[in-house]
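[step 3/7] fold_predict: job queued, chain A
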Amino acid sequence: MTDQKKSAGNPLWQKGVSGNPSGKRALKILTDRLRMELTQHPERVAKIAEAVIAKAEDGDLAAATMIWDRLEGRPLQTMEINATTTMLTPEERRMRVLELQARLVGSGTGDDGVGSQH
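[step 4/7] structure written:
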């Protein structure tokens, strides 16, 4: 065995150097066009803002939500995590997988996840 350590990752890429330095820019045709129009015509921005505010004042929930989201930020989404599967021993996990497979086969479900209908 040599004194050199085996390097992890792709040997063709130099560590810390992007393989795509200029990057591929996402196509945002509509966004780019709107940005150009609104930059060239700032009076349109004022008209749009006034229209959204007026709709919100008239009770338009979508307009009110849009304003709220822009000013306060969108609310954080909560997520409930059931950690019981991570607490299982390897043998318990194996048994659980077998149980779920048996249920899948017993339900008449094929590989596509859709139950067969006769």
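[step 5/7] annotate
Residues 112-118 have pLDDT under 50 and may be disordered.
Residues 29-72 form one domain.
exit 0
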